[in-house]
Each structure stands twice: as C-alpha cells, then as structure tokens.
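Lab notebook, bench 4. The sequencing result for the construct came back, and we need a structural model before the next group meeting so we can plan mutations. Quick request posted to the team channel:

Model the 3D structure of this chain.
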Amino acid sequence: MEPWYRVARTALLPPIGLWFNWRLEGLEAIPPEGPLIVAGNHLSYLDPLAHGLFVDRAGRRPRFLAKRELFQNLFVRTVLLGAGQIPVDRGSGARAPLMDAARALEAGEVVVLYPEGTSTTTDPQFSPGRGRNGAIRLSLMTGVPILPVATWGGQYVWRRGERIRPTFGRPILMTAGAPYDPSARSRSAEDRPSVPQLTAGLMRELSGLVDELRTRYPRRWTPG
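Done. Here's the predicted structure in token form:
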C-alpha cells in the first residue's frame, strides 16, 4: 500500500466516518480479493469520500479515475498520484486513463469511477444523468464486471456552487446492486453499436438504486 494512500486514509476516513451517520448496504458484494470495477452516481463533492469509505469498509483499497483538474494543485497532485489515483481528461477520449485502469485491474485492484463524469445536475430529483462509455469499455477490455454502488445524502452536504453544510449525524445512505457484466451482453469491445446501450443499461441500474435510497431517506433530514 502506497505511503500517501495510508496518509490520506488516516487523515480523511476516520473523521468522516464518525461525523456522518453512514448506512452501508451490500459490502459483501465487494470480493475480498481480485479485480472489480465500482461505478457510482455522482451527487456531490462528498461522493469520492463516500465511495472510498464504502470500499475501505469492505476491506479493499479504492483506486479512482479522477478529473485532471484535481491534479493542478501541487500538494493535491502529489497526494493523489502518490496514492495511485488516475487522472482523466474529461471529454478528450484519451485511452491512457483506461489503460492505466486496466493495469490496476490486472493487478487485482478495485477501480472506482463515475460514468456521469460530473456532479453537476439540474435534476431536482438528483437522479443519475446520461453516462459516458468509459466504464463499459473498461469492463469489455478486461472482462471485469461492474458493481453499481449508489449513494444518497451527500447532495445536502457539499455541492458545487453551494456552501458546505456538514451537519453532524446526517445520514448518508449507500447500497450496492447486482454485478453488471457487459461481456455477457456484448460480443467484444469492438461491438461499438452496443456500447451506448450497455452504458444506458448500467445507468438504469444505478437509477433504480438511487430511487430506492431516495424513498428510504429520513424525511426530517430532507430540505424543504
């Protein structure tokens, strides 16, 4: 385990683990070893910490595909690269991040990504938006299935353009769905017409999980 990952884990996960009321369901869906792709919905800036905590509580180390903008600050770049995180130029179509992620999967790691690519949404229900194809392509390249893991509650804590509201004890719900295996639905990574359809299917899985969490979120903690 990289030293910078140990530092980040020690500095970040215990405080957020104690501050919020985490309700984590489906940790057993993350195998104790071997490669896995985790795809999450993206509501807020809290999401990477939430999914990192989820994977960590399952006894694994997460390796994120993170937007390159996060790497512009020297200190943050040093920590992220030192912890083995993978920079992505959103919208560029570059293959390098997928190749880096594929190598991490070949090494038996858990790779976490957000198919939406951004937490920005105008949807008042905070339902997942349209997904990009990277998660599906990565799965088809490597034969590793995708585990959809949804979260709810972070949008009330830390969203772009809004002030941070870190209320002590706020529930943050997370749940894992059934593994989504594109290789069982498509012949190969070159089966390009199916890739957008497979991505849409993955987003439907995530949307269903989000709908379930939304209905179960404590009403007294829901603004308005």
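The first strand starts at residue 21 and ends at 25.
Will bring this to the meeting.
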